[in-house]
Amino acid sequence: MTRTAESRVGGAFERAAAEQRAALVGYLPAGFPSVDGAIAAATAMARAGADVVEIGLPYSDPLMDGPVIQEAVHRALEGGVHITDVLRTVEAVSAAGVPVLVMTYWNPVDHYGVEAFARDLASAGGSGLITPDLPPEEAGSWLEAAAARGLDPVFLVAPSSTDERIKLITAACGGFVYAASVMGITGARSAVGGAAAGLVERVRQHTTLPVAVGLGVSTAAQAAEVAQYADGVIVGSAFVQRLLRASDPAAGCAGVADLAAELAAGVRGSAS
């Protein structure tokens, strides 16, 4: 599968490429520190330089997520966040002018109903889903629903992925391919995985879609490093950490905006 001409995500990567830079993709979970607080923070991120925004759908068993995101998701669930709140978040952030993807484990979508989720996500202005635990072989119902609604299905590849596996995964992707820089859970690291550049090169042998690298990027310097070889730089835990450490929601939004501006400078090669 290749992205449709209407793909807002693909368009964001194309605009970044036209500026001879990588795209900045930022992640925040819905519902933390509150539903309105998450909307304000994600909107601030977009206005400060994120080209694409990922909104996390809080889930009780986030196997891929590290302690920072797990803590935020736990608080969101304790606050009573629902899928309707996630969709409201998508709608509000999309209205800020950036494409919005939902990052979710598959069980909540399956429980909600695949076609209903695709319908409601598209109605909210969403651009697609990132599904870290859904293998393409089991994604038939989602791929059909996504195609019918013009949504991008984003799947992950990892350093351990064989060339055969990469070919299969990239054929099912839309928007971009998510390249996990390391084997393991999300979280800021002192260095980006050394296998990331090689993984990007391997992925490009099988697709013309943009390749974005995530897991471990937290600073402008790291963003600049990844931007040398990838089409996009994905940052999650570092943004969530700004909210967790903030004294109040307003300070959290300011921290998120500051980090987005720093990372945006990094992907442009103008980090100080």
What number is the mean pLDDT?
A: 91
Order of helices and strands: HEHEHHEHHEHEEHEHEHEHH
Give the overall shape. globular
| Major sheet description | 9 strands, parallel
> Any idea what the CATH architecture is?
Alpha-Beta Barrel
The CATH topology name reads TIM Barrel
Which CATH class applies here?
A: Alpha Beta
Rg measurement, Å: 17 Å
Domain module tally: 1
Helix content: 40-55%
What is the helix tally? 12
| Sheet/helix structural class | alpha/beta
Instruction: Tell me the strand order in the biggest sheet.
Output: 5-4-3-2-1-9-8-7-6
Number of strands: 9
Low-confidence parts:
1-5, 183-191
- Percent range for β-strand residues: 5-15%
Distance between the termini: 40 Å
Question: What is the assigned CATH homologous superfamily?
Answer: Aldolase class I
For this entry, give a set of tags.
12 helices; alpha/beta; disordered N terminus; 9 strands; about 15% strand; TIM Barrel
Give a verbal description of the structure:
- This protein has a single domain, classed as TIM Barrel (Alpha-Beta Barrel).
- 48% of the residues lie in helices and 13% in strands.
- The chain has a 9-stranded parallel beta sheet with strand order 5-4-3-2-1-9-8-7-6.
- The model is unreliable at 1-5 and 183-191 (pLDDT under 50).
- The protein is globular and about 45 Å long.
- By secondary structure, it is α/β, with parallel strands linked by helices.
- α6 runs parallel beside α7 and α11 (237-245) runs antiparallel to α12 (249-267).
- The chain has 12 helices and 9 strands.
